[in-house]
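User: Please predict structures.

Assistant: First:
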Amino acid sequence: MSTNAQLRWPLPSIRSISSWVSGLRIEPSSMAQFLQFLQVAAAETAPLAKNCAILFDEMSVDTRLCYDQQRDVIVGPHKQAQVIMVRSICGAWKQPVYVAFDTAISPEILMQLILSLEEMGYPVRAVVSDMGSKNVGLWRALGVSYDGETSIANPAAADRRVWFFADVPHCLKNLRNHILDDGLYLGCGGDRGDPVVDSDLMEELAREVSATEFTVNRKLTALHVHAAKGDRQRVYLAAQLLSETVAKSIPEVFEGQEKAAEVINIIDSGFDVLNSRRRYADKPLRCGLGVHLTEQLAALRKLEELLLTARCGSRKTLLPFQQGFLLSIRSTLALYKEMEKVDGFQFLQTALLNQDALESLFSSVRTKFGSNLNPTPTELLYRLRLLLIGASPAAARQTSVRPASLPEEGLLSAARAGRPPQCGTEDEFVVPIFSGYDATTISSTTIAPSVDQLSAATPPEPAVPVELLEEIGVPPNGAETETSQAISEYGMQYAAGFVAAKRAKVDPTLGTRTCDMAEEDVPSGARWIYLLSRGHLTVPSEQWLENFKEFEVVFCAIHRGQGMARRNGTLDQLSRAPGVVKTLSDTLCLRWPRLDERVISLYARLRTFIRLRHVAKVRRGDHLAALAEAAARRSEKPTPTPVVGTRRQFVKARQFARGAVYLFTTPAELSESFNVVAPQPLKPLLMHNLLRQPDWRRSLVLVNWNEAAHQLELPLSVLGAREAEFPGDPLLAEAGIPSAWSTRKTLAARTLCRALALPEDDPLRRVAEADPPTRLRSTTGWRQLGRSALIEAGAEGVTVEPRLEVPLLPWTTCRPIAFNLDVGPGGRRASSNETRREAARQHLAALPAQATWIWSDGSADAGVRRGGGGAVIFTASGETLEVEVAAGGLCSSTRAELFALRAALERVRDEPSPAPLVACSDSRAALSLLSAGAAAQTTTIGAAIWRTLLDIAERRQVTLQWVPAHCGLAENERADALAKQAATLPQGAVPSDARSLTRAVHRTATRQWRENWPDSFFKTIFGSTLPLPIPGEDREAAISVHQLRAGHWGRSLQYLHRIGRHPSVECLQCPDKRCPAALCAVCREEADVPEHVLLRCPVLAGARLRLTGSIYVDPSRLRDADLVAALEAGYLRHREPLGYGPP
């Protein structure tokens, strides 16, 4: 190709350049590919610019499994990517030199890199890292510390040292955080007095400087003081808060705070010296180190003295960020003295000794390749490869379109001659392999070939020997093989039809499109494809479907026993060996040589990706289960929620624990109710005599569950029933039946609270408030029982909120009131905090800017008690108001949100401004409750909010907007802090609603019930937790599992002998567990009670080892219903040949 018509210089074509760069590969845990760039550029790099520093840091990656096509290997799961970068400290180049996954930098890796760079002529002067635990461990291993040696000997040059630096911006952020959280004190003695600088001073300063139009510091805002989560990671907020401008503002606003101004000024001056980015800057101290050497050295000495004498909070020792500052200061001074001996050196840009270059690389890898901000390990390698070759990430697409003209300069280019050395994100990689070309010019096969491109390429010669076919069990001849039962027939046919459609031009005999065949010609097994198709799906031929099924046998054999261990100890059956697709393809080509290799290649890739997706889904489920178990262990009241796959399974599982509720009372006989309705699951318990005592039977009464009204239809005698101990509570818990005593307490408390919520002149309220007559007085009457339950729940003396007697009129107009309960797809809970925050900001930007804004939030301890509401109001006139309100001693989080919103709306009700009103809340439940309309409000607080809204809406537009919670929105975080502070206010005068009081009683009664369970085999397994419902449609099997774990098994020989259904010649019936007729029929060692069958029977030792990995099973493992069912089936299978069939 000729690009210069005058000179006629021939240049390589785009296709040639694309072919050259296609051989570039990036191997993890290897430096060879990266160091080639430096070696090529060594000849053209000035000697001074070769002085370099080593930077390394970790970057989080997506933990999903992925497939690397270039290396043909399954990668993952990994959490972190360790990246090492080399950059010049006197020039403008930088270069990544190492990438590894879940690997810490060791002294060996560091020394190997130093020797390689020195050998190529790049003197290594510094090593930069943050103060993570792994990096601090590396410092200790090398003998580096802030109060000792801050360098190590250069292994390649005895006359030079390698100096270690902490990331100074990271240290500054930590300094800011500790000042705001704990305060900064001068002196390390016992009596240090008041803090010199703390959050109160900064908050007051921010409030003062923002209260007037002409301010002394326009940049300082409340965000600088109340930064949380993501905002705490922003360096510019810390630098602006601890800046010279703030230091000068303090004496102007406050008297007697000169010491605080001096401290902040010392911090700002020292940071300027440690973060210089050019030779000459706007401030003398920000110039390169050496331009104003005397002043710069004095600033560093003052900062060093301050860090040695200052303490944060009650700590008596130096914090890690102080040690990092001291390490960097001393290394900077020593490095400057060492560099003065280098020819041509004039100044030192200290900003080149932090991790900004690495952070810039991470940002480019995440944000410049589309919307996926969290790449997988394979995507990280591909993106880093594109950055190295100089292609434009924005145009990196798989396309064959060639550009009509080349842009003058690409995203990244080499350091050009005559360019002054300068620090910043504009530093470039050392070699421009593909600089100036768009990524669309790169052949798509060099990045990520598609399925068609992969299969269209000529496959290599098979490298799989015939012995492998015999080893995995594939017959060498054409004998018919069995199909795998793991894949459904329909799914296999659909996959076979997919391959047949994609390779129809290669082999038309693989299948026929449904539009080309009559309905009567469709095979019976492919009717589903025909019904699903609109004419373009392909029905596989019988021969191809048979081959496809045989392929499945080979695939399963190759991956059997391979992969990584899952949470339950089994392997995930997905090989991580290199060449995973090639091995399968070559094996199939040897076995079926008549089939086209492109067909087999497509099948191999398709089948591997199907398995990869399945394994990723399974491992994700394991991860969620582990998180759920960890949360249950951390919880004081663990109540695990069953997770069932489908709606049908969920309904079936709940049928076992619902349908009837059984309460214990004295009046009724069991037979009177039991014969009317066949109660499940109590019927099998009674049949097997698990409820043995006659008193228990007489105390049982059936109470119907009203599904439509979602309430219990209770006779009055239930509320007056006496309390009785019931050792069978674990049995009822296994059956999914709630505790009778906790249910009675809940019902009594609910009745009492509803009565107390009535008007004072209501007869029922007078009855509830009065003491019962002596002849009716008992410890379990509904008034006494309800009052004692409220006292136990901590609600003694709490006022019940009056019932809403007069609802708002249904025809009330609410036209100027709008409810927005979403901010777009990015606001979903599954999205990251950054994504949710950006979606919220974009949505809020469309609302009126000149408006009164309300940001409200509620808080409740554990979501049940000590509620508080807080709100921040930004009026249209520029005034900022804060509201705090107590929400009650017993209060839900939603109720606290409503209290906060009501208090804020009442605060702005009389505001004369006609500007619109925007109220933001992070409680979708509260806004959904209000959005139902004025007439739909059934609570007092909901009606009060609507009355206020209607008053405000008469003169201004009102919008209630939902925002994501705790995603870094400064106003929302400020309202949350106010709500938590309001929760500490006195709560005695705030009433609670009947629902909150009833829930508190139910939680307390349920906890007491679980804590008082008798010691039994059931309690050994579950402790004080309830078992999960068993999914599936086999109710008999579920009952059997529940009985085994409850310690009363209906199929036990000991139990059958005790009730006379398993007599022997010597003994017809007895309760003795040592009777020969009651012994285990398999081992004859002891009675076959559930503990023996599940934990101790020696015949089942192999089954326990296979299922759990140990012959000694921890009782807590029996929470797994599948394990109990498997052990039961194994025991019955061993017992049946001995003549003991099912009872």
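Second:
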Amino acid sequence: LNAFYTANSTAINSAGSALASAANLDVKSIENTITTFAETSAVLMKGLDALGQLHPFVGVAVMAFKLVITLDITRRQNNKKVLAVKIQMQDLMTILFQLRHIRDPEEKGPDGTTLKDRMSGLMESIAKDITACGSACDVYMKKSFLAKTIKSKIYESRLAGYVTNFANDKKEIGFALKVHTALGVDAANKKLDGQDEHLKNIEGKIEALFRKLDTPREREVQKFIDEKGGAKACVDNEATLQELVLKSGESLADMDPTHSGNGDLVSAKKMLNRELAEDVDDAFKRNMKLFDRKMEMQSKQMADAISWTGEHIISVLSGGAHEKILDADLQAIWKEQGWKGSVKARHFVLALNDYYTEKFTVIDTAVAIAESDAGSAPPSPLMSPTSPAVADPDLPAGAKPEDDRWALAYINVAHLQPILEAVDDDGTGFVSIKEANEFALSRPKGWSLLSWVAFWAAGWHASVTWYKNRIYNLLSAMMRLTQRVKAGNVQAADTYFAGPAIQRVELLLRSTRSAPGKVYDDARLTRMVDAFQETEEKKLLAQLEGLAYELDDTATLRLVTGPRRIERYVYPLIFRLLKRHFDIMRLACVHVFHETEFEVMSGSLATIFKAVDERTANLEAIFKSTAMNVKEHLGHVAFGMFQLAYGGHQRDPKNNTIYTFDEEDGFETDEDEDLGPDSDDDEASTKAILARMDPNILHHKPENEPSGAYTFEKLHPPPAARADPIDGAWTGQLLVDGESFDEGAISLMLTRMGDKLAGGAENWAELLSVAGTVDEGHKVVITIDWSDGYGVVCTGKYDPETDTITASNGSYEEIFSFTFRRTPAAAFRFRYTDAEFAKNRARARWGFAIAATIDQVQQMRFSWPYLKKRFAERKNFIELTKRQTIVERKLTPWTPMSSKDLTQLQTLKDALHPSDAQFYNSLALFQLQKVVTYGRKCNSCEHHITDVWLFCIQCMDDQFCECIDLCSECLDQTPTKDTFVHVRSHVLIKTFRRIHDGDLAWIVPEARRVATRVKKAIEDATSLLSRLEGKKGSGHSKKRKAAVKLCCCCGKPVSCPFWVCIYCVEDTYICVECDTKRLKPLPNNEDSHTLSHSLVEIFNSKPISEPLTTNSKLAELESKVLSLDSRMAALEEKLETRFTSLDTVLQGIGEKLSASTS
């Protein structure tokens, strides 16, 4: 250990001076340490392992340090501020090397305490500090750039706090060592007293260091936020938010790490508002559970790696230093070919074929000779083609391996590419000794090398295709389930299934070439594929269960897959995740979920595709270095699974295959596969299937009932006895220029502790945090903080005589006046105003007392007048809140709020008990949560479409991606978009549910077919009716009746415009009046039409024309102008001819007149 320390003293001392560098704001030194972070960490971990053997009690801290650092190093990108904190963690661990001077952990100090006893508790504490810091950094790193920036002060304060903890831990270790080595407690205390002063300043200096480490982009964005009035002001203003996003350099999609939104400004605003409202400390606590799981898996992975390395190092050493190949057959090939450190991958595979072909020939010849000479003597074990250098542990003693010459049929040029990919793990085109060993040793127990190669030659492709078929079936089943989920989950479920993650899954499936079904004709290969899948899935399930199916970043993903290529695991991973997601989707049909449940699902899939993109980028670099066509060559790698996503992924609904995919021959789903409920299941069967689902698989408890409302008094109960006059409940309002503030009535619960005030508050919207101070002169400073970061500082004075807190002071350049009184929140609405009190004190007090008492008595008796008033207030509050929210969010359909409406809503916010108002507000928001959203903006009113979506199939691009979108209020409008020019007579599709890309792929063509057919039928019917007009007879009457189309809801004849169902087999007609009222079909109607079916509008009977775009309109105008020019030229020519003819006539007349006069 001493020799190691001496040899690596430079690196260790560098890490050990980090705290001093931070305290001195030595940015250059810190950045140098950041640059060498990985190398220094490796040295420290190696040295600490050795130290742990000498003093096992340090093991708990050393292991925590190793796990956190190892997980951190696996990240492709890191943050300088996080690394600066981890460097302080390194600094802490360096002091443990002082233990190298003490040989015996049981050695007792001057006070009779052993070193082990003195240090063990401290090591446990340090391990907890390291793990908590690792989890906090994990949360911070997963946030988007803007999410980090808008709360940078809070995050950096917490990170600086961990640095202080490490500095304090280092001080404690130093103190313990000085006491133990008998340097004197007094001397140690004296020195540590000086360090205390140093520690008081370290947190502030770390925050100053963070400013030095700010990137230019961080400084620019933070300056912009400050200039615009803070983070909340920036997020609330769409124009400012758009500018902020541009300055951040992030795309709207990248701002959401879970990729669960629509990648638009609305999703970004929602996400950032949630970030502002999130309590950072709560976020750290929530993440600890997942982080602990990661640490556990990381620990197991490290232990397995040590075990594997130890076994095979022993194997190599026992075989001689020159024999680095561990498998006997590979060793023979390597020697025979005279290869050195590496070989071209193609040559390697061809050599395998030649080697085994020759070996089987030799065996067959030897057997034939033996049989001809001595009957049927068994072949010599020395001539077995499958004798491994590493013994096969699954074979019983004396048993012979199965003859696997069948596998040789798959080692040929036709299967060259998958074999190359399996062996050449880094994709360089060369196989190294390390890769050859890893490939050979990674085979399942009991498998020969030849069968292992055969599996990768043909079996892996069959396995991928097996998963591909089942993933398609899962996606199809999930798409059906989106129509069944509870209304409270519909937005989240639709957003998940329409999001980028599921789009990428479908693109991967479409991009991957399937294996031929005849692969399963080979029973031996089939057994291998089944056995491999079963073994791998068991491992995968155990790892995913350990992480609760949450893959929050690629470092976590690598805990599941290890360092191997993602294409080996992407299909089974996606299959297992989607199986869990399918079960969660079934639970969504029974329970209402927490808003982030589906986001976790999207985030896990997004993490997989982040790894896919990293792999694609690596392949791109390799192909470009050899001047290859990247797109073309990606078609050869992993059966083309990366090809379609290369070069950027765009929505492609027209080619979406979720609905149209048919199971491939040989890969059909098992009959017992559980993908119910199906569309033809009855209600009882459906309930039975859904009842089997276990809610414990959810990340959050179901929210089947409103939560959060009426919890204020539970969280902040009134004191049993007031220890101070200021203790207890208060009710009041914040006023701006004497007018009621939007926050309405506020209830406070205060507790005085010395000169500090603690407690909580609530208003109509949420629970608020409260802190403050009070002095002996009754000066009170109360800070009220909203969850979104907004805060008000109320400075005033407590008046013991009136028992009020009154003042006028504020923040953000707004002047708030306020008075908090002892009036109960339920009676606050009856409280007299200052003007009423000044006019007649007795009348004001009596009026207040009478009204409050009557209300209290009516409440206790549940009298009808009281209930009627309460119901009316609830209804008005909910309706007005919904309307205001719809207007603020720019949703459709909307009704603008008049000044009367705004006044009425504010009056309710001021009058209602905050707990009641909170409950009503949650009901209003929940009702909006149940409305279907589409992720589209109306091209006429520019509001976000909800409830009903109309889109034009004549103003639509070839990929069904971009089109003219309209809300129900703008049906008759004719907007333009890009090159599209919408006309009212165009064919529109109308839907009351979100149409996913899988459905859109067939709905658009089907809508065109239905519209064309119905338009022709209407034209034919009109022609027939006109021919039959005036004619009599039963035959003519039947023809007239058949020609008339009836509405399925009212039974009356329909006339243009009307709607036709796209889903129903028989054309089902709905008149405009019934559609507006959303009436159901008549009971005696044979059609199975429902409101969930999409409709196509028949505006008139004219055939569908080509879409009129701006370009085509200009071309048409240009053609008309050219035609007009031609006509003008012809007219000019005609006039010229007429004028010439007239001149000739006049000339003749003149000549005649001249002749006559002469």
